[in-house]
Structure formats: structure tokens, C-alpha cells
Design goal:
The complex is a heterodimer of chains A (263) and B (440).
Chain A lengths: L9 H6 L6 E4 L1 H6 L1 H16 L4 E2 L10 H5 L3 H17 L4 E4 L2 H10 L8 E4 H10 L14 E4 L13 H9 L3 E2 L30 H10 L5 E4 L2 H13 L7 E4 H8 L3
Parallel strand pairs in A: 1-2, 1-3, 3-4, 5-6, 5-7, 7-8
Helix pairs in contact in A: 3-11, 7-8, 9-10
Chain B lengths: L3 H28 L11 H13 L8 H30 L10 H29 L14 H32 L26 H25 L7 H11 L12 H11 L29 H9 L5 H5 L1 H4 L6 H22 L9 H4 L3 H5 L6 H5 L6 H16 L4 H13 L18
Helix pairs in contact in B: 1-3, 1-6, 1-12, 2-7, 3-4, 4-5, 5-6, 7-9, 9-12, 12-16
The chains are: A alpha/beta (263), B mainly alpha (440).
């Protein structure tokens, strides 16, 4: 399999004088974090299967600046943003897909004012589009009838109003989708946003990811589906904290689709 | 002597409305102490929001129980104001039920008001039970101790008294109509107060007139007092909710404001042709401050937000930090902001301009621990029924902490250094970014 999947960079495309259909913005978690890399790989397998002409920035990609901005360092954020925009504009990038809602939100909403105008899609939106265009087929496979709940990432859901794309994908997998009480616009944060991922939480009664994991586990799902590498980490930690690894898995929607197809 | 009641009424009305206007102007002055914001454009969308969120109460009913009672009280309040208009005209001209010429429609109006008054009573009693008997969690937060708790109850008592007076007034009025009392025009249908009227059976006409006049006067004076109570209470939302929703954000919630001063700076840094020794061009002024440490650094919309907040606590009850026992409460951010801008306003009243008082919003009102507990998840913004944005204040205060004081938590400083050096929040080499492709 591995010899078939090519992950070309924009630089390579440029050298050949070509433009890919879409740039896959991998993001820091997707590039470095062992758990998130699995999401990256699953998504790339799906892109490959759907014969999408895509490229990545590779070593030319840099943090979007989301955690810096939300931690209050506007200067560092804008430095990152301008640097990235310079690279993206130099490659004349038009369309970006990313598996990270934080990258998605920042590039989509905060880059335009700084000179970066692109069509930006979250990977669940992109996959949904591929399916409706008939470029990617998804069938239930191993998840058919499984009890699954979806955790809305704040930066996809509330921040950008996208609640349906990931759910439609799950429905395509013919799962039994069960909703937590706090879902969609009232979804509870996993606790990682606003740069919390990178610091210890303030003193409190419990950690936010535990609160959320408890809510999910109460539904007795076999999988907690997520759409964000940070939510994924937080909920995976939560499941471990509750010693439920044997019963419930945390998986990205893209991973589930790739698995269903045994890619 | 004949005109004495009219004159007293006029004086009460002018005094009531006058003092209220004075205080409203103070609020406007205080809001204008904030930074200007560009709220131009999106006019259609903004009016749409006013129609849907403010007038249509669309976000109130997300919580059906509180929402339903609120809609009842809101509709009651708005419609019963038509009756207040009649009372004012009657009071000024010495007429009685001046709108009664409307005939059947008048009967219908009065009947509607009575039913609404009863429903408002039910709603207000339900609210009181929720606060004082059920003790719903969001009304019991630490910031709700003392004045905020009492304030909420006073408002409910006010409304009960006003509705009871309104119904008493109608009850005695219909008794007088039946007695053919002079001056009491035969008009109105009284589906609710007719159940109170029997209480006055056997009373002399003079007694019932005294009851009717007392209820009438105390009712209208009560309304004027209540109007003036607004400024001192959390209840300003009955007016400010509308402009506040209009000025609320029309962007996706995930879009945070880019600091323009920083943009210029960064552009200069990245421009290879810029002369590093050149004097700053004319008219470019370095910003006084990055981010916000005091209420004066906040925008006018944020200050309007603070005055609009009615402390319902839906934000706090949806806040993941608060739910998990952290100190942060978005409602407290808004209450603190209002308290501070009020304090600044009083300072300005005294000294003509703001004389530094050695206090600020940061630390003296809002602690750093609260600010750093926010996950920027937008749950508070989503929850607010009147489009208040507590999160933007938190983010601007963080910006002040980091950019003016370098006072981020240590782990975040490490994260930021990593981003600066490696282009990722973790200490990985940027050259390894694509290594995952070898694992495919």
C-alpha cells in the first residue's frame, strides 16, 4: 500500500508547474502527535482512494498561530499568520482542507484580513462533499449498527456553525448515532481550547475532559467519535482516566471511514 | 383645587421620567468612555438579529421552562404598557378610561391585559420559586451573594405589586361602574378582576372610590419608581437588550479580532525594503496599550454588554471551566466590568475627567486565575439570550497580560517559544513535519 500513496509537497508541484486540487493543511498535532498522526494518515488514505490531487506544505508549514492568539500573544499570532500567508500566496493556493478545527477556523476567519483568502474546509466537510459528488463511497462495514456518540469540536461547531457534516458521515457508516445531552450548539468543550492544551488547568473540582468523558461514557457507546486532534487527545486521556479503554475507543470520523473500508 | 390631581400627576411624571433620563444619559456617557468600534455594514443581518433574538426571544426558549415564563412576562410587560399610556393620558387630562371610545375593541384590550397580568403573576411567582425555593444552581454562584440576589428578588416583588394593583384597580372600577358612580365610565371586560370584585361587596361607594384611586395612583407611581430603579439594578436589559443585540457580532464566533496596530508592526518587520532607522510616518501613533487592563480599554459594545447583562447566568452554567469547578464565571466578568465602568463614571462625575484611582479591572475585579481558565469555547457567547460576549473581554485581558506584562503561565511561555522557534507548540524540529508520510 505504502508504495502507492504519494504525499507530494507544494514545492514538488510547483517544480512541475502544476497546481493540486487542494492543499492538505496537516497542522502541528497532525504532523507530530503520535495519536493525531494516525488521523492524518487515515485522511490521506481516503484522499488517495478518492483519487484527489492533493499536496502538503511539508516543512514549509508552520503553526497557524491559534494557540498564541488565544493565549494573548497577538504579535506571535500575526507573525505566524503573515509567514504562512506569504507561503500560501506564493504557491497560489486556492483551496485548503485540514483535519484540525483550530487551523480551519484560524485560516478561514482570521487570515483574510491579513491577506490570506482561501476556500477552507474541515476534513469532514470535504469528505461529505466527496461523497455527494460520488467520488468517495462509504459503506457501513465494521461500524454498521455500532453505538457511537459524536463530540462536537468547539471550533468546528459553535465557532463555525458546522454540526452536520461529521454526523452525516457517521450516518453513512450506518452507525447508531446517540447524542449527548450537551451536543451541537450546546456541546461541552473537551477542555483543550484557548491554549489550555498546553498548560495545566486552574484549580477546580475536576478536569473538563473528565466531565465530558463521563457524559459520553454514560451513553455506553463503543466509540466516541471526534473531529479534532486536541479533542481526541483530551477524550482519550479521559477514557484512560476512567479506565474504560477496554470498552470505548476515541476515534476521528476520518479514521472510522478509512477503517470501515479497511484502508 | 380642581386641577390639583392633574398637577401632582404632571409633577410626578416629569420627575420620574426626568430622573430616569438623567441616569440613562449617564449610562450613554459611560459607554462612550470605551473605545470606538466600527459597527457599520451588515445592517440587514443586524436588524434580523434584533427581530429574531431580541423581539422574537429565540435564544430565551432554548431553555423551555425559563424561556416560556420569560416570554409570558415579556409579552405581558410590552402589551400592558398600552394600558399605561391610557393611565398617563387620564392622569394628565383628568379623564377616566379615555380609550373607552374604542368600544368592543377596548373591552377586548382590557380583557387581554387582565389575562396577561394574571399570567405575568404566575411567571413572576415561578421565577421567585426557581430562585428561592428550587435554588437553581446558576442563581447560587458566589457572585450572586448579597445585592445581586436581593436585586433579583426586588424586581420580582415590584412586578407582583404592580400586577396586583392593576387588577385591584380594575376590580374596584367595575364595582363602581355597577354602582353608577359618577365619572366611572362603563367600559372594559374584566375576566380576572371580576373574581376580586366580590371582595368589595357591601362597601360604600366612597370606600370603593378610595380603593380604586389608591390602586390607580400607587400603580402609576410604582411604575415610575420601577422605571428609576432600572438604572440601579440588573434589569436594564428590558431596554438595552435591543441595541445590544443589534451591535452584537455578525461574524462567525470563531473569528477573533485582529489587532490592527500589531498588523502594521508585523508588516514593517516582514518588509525587506523598510528602512529600520526611518522615523515613524506622520499620523501613526503607537497604541497606548495592547489588550485591556481596565474598563476604559474595552470597546463601547463590550461596555454596552456589561450594562445589558441581567445576570441570568446561562453563560456561567454552560461554561466548561465553571462546570468543572474553576473560579471563572463569564457572568462575573460582565458584572465586574459594569461595576468598574460605573466606578469610573462616578470618578468622572466628580472630577470632570477620569482621575486615576489606583484601581483597574484586572486584579482589582477580575483575577488572573479567572482569565487563564477560559477555553475560548464560545459556550458563554452561544448561551447568552441577548448576544453578550464575555469571552472577548477575557481574550483582550489575556492580551494585556502577555503583551504588556509578559505574565503568561510558564507552560504557555514555553509553548510560545516553541511556536516562535519551531513553528509548532511542541519542541519538534520543523524539518520533521512530514516524517509521518514514511509511516504510511
Amino acid at each position: 500500500m505504502s508504495d502507492q500513496i504519494k504525499v507530494p509537497t507544494m514545492a514538488e508541484y510547483m517544480a512541475q508547474g502544476k497546481q493540486p486540487e487542494v492543499l492538505f493543511w496537516v497542522g502541528c498535532a497532525g504532523s507530530f502527535d503520535d495519536r493525531a498522526k494516525k488521523i492524518t494518515k487515515a485522511f490521506v488514505k481516503l484522499l488517495h482512494k478518492a483519487k484527489i490531487d492533493f499536496a502538503v506544505l511539508g516543512t514549509e508549514e508552520s503553526c497557524t498561530g491559534d494557540p498564541a492568539k488565544r493565549a494573548g500573544n497577538e504579535f506571535l499570532f500575526q507573525m505566524q499568520a503573515m509567514g504562512n500567508i506569504e507561503v500560501l500566496n506564493a504557491y497560489e493556493v486556492k483551496k485548503i482542507v485540514t483535519a484540525c478545527p483550530h487551523c480551519f477556523n484560524t485560516i478561514k476567519n482570521e487570515y483574510p484580513e491579513l491577506g490570506g483568502n482561501y476556500e477552507v474546509m474541515h476534513h469532514t466537510q470535504f469528505l461529505k462533499a466527496l461523497m455527494s459528488e460520488g467520488r468517495l463511497k462509504v459503506e457501513g462495514g465494521k461500524y454498521k449498527g455500532k453505538r457511537i456518540t459524536f463530540h462536537d469540536p468547539c471550533y468546528l461547531g459553535r465557532a463555525n456553525g458546522e454540526y452536520e457534516a461529521p454526523r452525516e458521515l457517521l450516518q453513512k457508516l450506518e452507525v447508531e448515532l446517540v447524542e449527548m445531552k450537551r451536543c451541537k450548539s450546546r456541546g461541552l468543550c473537551c477542555g483543550a481550547g484557548g491554549a489550555q492544551m498546553f498548560k495545566e488547568p486552574e484549580a477546580g473540582a475536576k478536569d473538563i475532559n473528565i466531565e465530558r468523558t463521563e457524559e459520553a461514557i454514560a451513553l455506553k457507546p463503543s466509540i466516541i467519535a471526534a473531529g479534532c486532534p486536541f479533542c481526541n487527545t483530551m477524550l482519550t486521556d479521559g477514557v484512560k482516566g476512567k479506565e474504560k479503554e477496554g470498552e470505548v475507543q476515541v476515534m476521528d470520523v476520518a479514521e472510522m471511514i478509512a477503517n470501515a473500508d479497511e484502508l | 383645587m380642581h386641577y390639583l390631581p392633574n398637577i401632582i400627576f404632571l409633577i410626578a411624571l416629569v420627575a420620574g421620567v426626568g430622573y430616569f433620563t438623567l441616569n440613562i444619559r449617564k449610562i450613554i456617557r459611560n459607554i462612550k468612555l470605551g473605545q470606538t468600534v466600527d459597527a457599520s455594514g451588515h445592517t440587514k443581518e443586524r436588524w434580523g438579529n434584533v427581530l429574531r433574538i431580541a423581539i422574537g426571544q429565540s435564544k430565551m426558549v432554548v431553555r423551555p421552562v425559563a424561556g416560556l415564563f420569560h416570554v409570558v412576562v415579556y409579552v405581558g410587560f410590552v402589551l400592558i404598557n398600552i394600558e399605561v399610556l391610557e393611565i398617563i393620558i387620564d392622569g394628565l387630562l383628568g379623564t377616566h378610561r379615555v380609550f373607552s371610545f374604542l368600544g368592543v375593541f377596548y373591552d377586548f384590550l382590557i380583557a387581554t391585559f387582565e389575562i396577561l397580568a394574571l399570567l405575568v403573576l404566575v411567571g413572576v411567582i415561578a421565577f421567585w420559586i426557581r430562585r428561592n425555593v428550587q435554588k437553581i444552581k446558576r442563581f447560587m454562584s458566589p457572585e450572586m451573594k448579597g445585592w445581586p440576589k436581593n436585586d433579583a428578588n426586588y424586581i420580582l416583588y415590584f412586578e407582583v405589586v404592580l400586577m396586583v394593583l392593576f387588577l385591584t384597580m380594575n376590580a374596584s372600577d367595575q364595582v363602581l361602574q355597577q354602582m353608577d358612580a359618577a365619572h366611572y365610565t362603563k367600559a372594559g371586560t374584566f375576566p380576572v378582576s371580576s373574581f376580586i370584585a366580590p371582595l368589595f361587596a357591601g362597601f360604600s361607594e366612597a370606600t370603593v372610590v378610595i380603593i380604586e384611586r389608591s390602586a390607580w395612583w400607587i400603580h402609576i407611581l410604582g411604575i415610575l419608581v420601577f422605571l428609576n430603579y432600572l438604572y440601579f439594578s440588573k434589569h436594564l436589559h428590558i431596554m438595552l437588550a435591543f441595541p445590544n443585540v443589534y451591535f452584537g457580532s455578525v461574524d462567525p464566533k470563531g473569528k477573533f479580532k485582529n489587532n490592527k496596530a500589531v498588523t502594521n508592526e508585523v508588516k514593517l518587520m516582514m518588509d525587506p525594503n523598510v528602512d529600520p532607522f526611518a522615523a515613524a510616518p506622520e499620523g501613526t501613533e503607537a497604541p497606548a496599550k495592547f489588550g485591556a487592563s481596565d474598563a476604559l480599554d474595552l470597546s463601547r459594545v463590550q461596555l454596552l454588554n456589561a450594562y445589558t447583562c441581567t445576570e441570568c447566568g446561562r453563560c456561567t452554567s454552560e461554561c466548561p471551566a465553571n462546570i468543572s469547578g474553576k473560579k471563572l464565571s463569564p457572568r462575573k466578568i460582565m458584572m465586574d466590568t459594569r461595576d468598574r465602568i460605573e466606578e469610573i463614571g462616578k470618578n468622572v462625575d466628580k472630577n470632570k475627567v477620569f482621575v486615576p484611582d489606583g484601581k483597574q479591572l484586572l486584579d482589582d475585579y477580575i483575577s488572573r486565575e479567572e482569565l487563564w481558565a477560559c477555553t475560548s469555547c464560545n459556550a458563554c457567547v452561544e448561551a447568552c439570550p441577548v448576544s453578550i460576549d464575555p469571552m472577548s473581554i477575557i481574550m483582550e485581558m489575556r492580551q494585556y497580560l502577555v503583551m504588556e506584562q509578559s505574565a503568561a503561565p510558564t507552560e504557555l511561555n514555553v509553548t510560545m517559544t516553541n511556536i516562535e522557534n519551531n513553528g509548532a507548540p511542541w519542541p519538534f524540529n520543523q524539518m520533521d513535519r512530514l516524517n509521518w508520510k514514511n509511516e504510511l
